[in-house]
Design goal:
With 223 residues, the protein is α/β, with parallel strands linked by helices. The chain has helices spanning 16-27, 41-51, 67-76, 99-104, 117-128, 136-144, 155-159, 166-176, 181-188, 192-206, 211-221, and strands at 7-12, 32-38, 55-59, 86-91, 109-112, 133-134. Strand 4 (86-91), helix 4 and strand 5 form a beta-alpha-beta unit.
């Protein structure tokens, strides 16, 4: 019998039926285990601190404390990032105005609630592995820059790029453009291991907790 590495998931949504449905889908997978649920952002933060799940699958629109508040609070408490929890945001709107803010705050991905089962479970696995996990609809809008328009970079944002080498800036631009590590390696004619090293250094130097957050930073600062 093959041994699967278990990915623990916390499901956060204010609708009981949605929570139950998402939990059932995830628990049906051999390598995914739902370790808890929460019905708003405040409960999500407390549950994350207690359970330390690999991934939070969290609705962005909830009463009282929403998903964006929870994401910001998780970052403030240093509960996000490599070796900690990843956050995959859910929405019913492909034009949700919070997408940019959520990715900039450290979300690893963004999915529509009507995504196919395979897309949902695949996104959870990708987020757990530290990759970006974005629905095709959201990806198209981010790459095209139509979510909220290009923002004027702040001095603080530009300062986060100060320590990057020219090659690391090249890698960051390609991450911004949605290329995978393998595609970046082919584009720059380097090994996959070299690309992984560059990406890791970019995340560390910029203080980004995910590729998606780095992509947003790059889109708002790099030409």
């Amino acid at each position: 019998m093959p041994v699967f590495e278990q990915i623990s998931v916390l499901v956060v949504d204010d609708e009981p039926i949605i929570r139950a449905g998402l939990s059932a889908i995830l628990d049906s997978q051999t390598d995914l285990t739902v370790v808890g649920t929460a019905n708003d952002g405040e409960e999500a933060v407390e549950a994350c601190a207690r359970l330390r799940p690999d991934v939070l699958l969290m609705d962005i629109r909830m009463p009282r404390r929403d998903g964006l508040w929870a994401l910001t609070e998780l970052g403030r408490r240093a509960l996000l990032g490599p070796g900690r929890s990843r956050v995959l945001m859910l929405t019913t709107f492909d034009l949700d105005e919070y997408v940019d803010d959520a990715l900039a705050a450290g979300a690893s991905g963004f999915l529509l609630k009507n995504s196919a089962y395979e897309e949902l479970t695949g996104a959870v696995r990708a987020a757990a592995a530290g990759h970006s996990a974005l629905s095709p609809a959201v990806t198209q809008r981010i790459i095209a820059g139509h979510l909220s328009g290009r923002r004027q970079p702040s001095d603080q944002a530009l300062a986060r790029l100060r320590d990057l080498t020219e090659r690391e800036l090249d890698v960051l631009r390609l991450v911004r453009d949605g290329l995978s590590n393998a595609e970046i390696a082919a584009r720059l004619v380097v090994s996959l291991h070299t690309v992984k090293t560059h990406v890791s250094r970019v995340l560390t130097k910029t203080g980004c907790q995910s590729r998606a957050q780095a992509a947003v930073l790059a889109r708002n600062t790099l030409s």
